Amino acid sequence: MTQTNRKIDVICFSGTGNTRLVIDKITSILRENNMEVCMKSEREPYTHEKGRELLLAFPINSQSVSPYIWKYINSLPDGNQDPIHVVLTMNESASIIWPLKKVLEKKNYQPKGIIEISMPNNMLLGSDTTSERMPAAISKAEQFAQDFINQKEVWEEHLKGSAFVSFLSRDTVLPWVTMRMFNKLIADPAKCTKCGLCVKECPVNNIRMDEFPVHLNHCDFCMHCGAVCKNDAVTVKGRPSCHIRSAKDI
Predict the structure, then answer these.
(1) Domains of the chain, each with CATH number or no CATH
(2) Between residues 135 and 126, which one has the greater pLDDT?
(3) Rounded to the nearest 5°, which phi and psi values hold at 196?
């Protein structure tokens, strides 16, 4: 049965804009159906009001979730048995779903629906072979919105993914230390204009301004710095052909 007087808070983590793109599509459809949608800042602690549903969206990283996002999820307040809905972007998210559900239930939310939407890769180390995913992603977001409206969502638990890799990414620092060693982000001094936007926008304060922006050693690889850089100055050390793009560029 469709309810049009529902109130939904939305928390969206989106480094390069993929996740925000699908959330904008979903929330526009919810608003068209007379639902009250309130976007909440992912940079601020969430305060839950009884009677409001929560829509949580974030990208999958290393078959799990970036440490700062997992920390945020674990800091959610009591949900008063209100519904929670989850949108995951990228792929191979299966092994985060069970521990995520366990955390949300412990926080007193009712998990109602979860969906995985495969998106284009926005960190390119060669030619782009994934842009064709975008139309299917938008279509899947539209279907999720309709299922949300009609209360026909399901909590999928049969998606692809490695439980071991997900555990390492979620509960240990090993994958992140490895990525920071072999995929260290840097600012290309030939392109950087020293505007400081990457320093301001980094959600984990991993960049400080010196003569040029300096990327420190606790990067969570959200790629937001590269997506907001207007000069394509963020790249991977030793891989000058690496390009980080925004979803707006696809």
Answers:
(1) 7-164 (3.40.50.360), 183-244 (3.30.70.20)
(2) 135
(3) 85, 5
What's the confidence (pLDDT) of residue 94?
Answer: 62
Span 49-57, average pLDDT = 98
Return the axis-axis angle of helices 18-32 and 133-149, rounded to nearest 10°. 40
- Catalogue the E-assigned strands of 62-108: 83-89
Amino acid identity of residue 37, one-letter, is V
Provide the phi-psi class of 80: left if phi over 0, else alpha when psi is between -120 and 50, else beta.
Answer: left
What integer pLDDT is reported at residue 128 of this predicted model? 79
The C-alpha atoms of residue 124 and residue 163 are separated, in whole angstroms, by: 26
Helix (H) or strand (E) holding 78: none
What's the DSSP call for residue 194?
Answer: -
* pLDDT of the residue at 157: 67
CB 155 within 8 A of CB 101: yes
pTM score of the predicted model: 0.91
Q: Is 125 exposed, middle or buried (0-12, 13-18, 19+ CB in 10 A)?
A: exposed
- The tokens for 206 are 């991993």
Please tell me whether residue 185 adopts helix, strand or coil conformation: strand
Smallest CA-to-CA distance from 186 within 167, 146, 213, 156 is with 213
* Cα 215 to Cα 59: distance, rounded to the nearest angstrom: 22
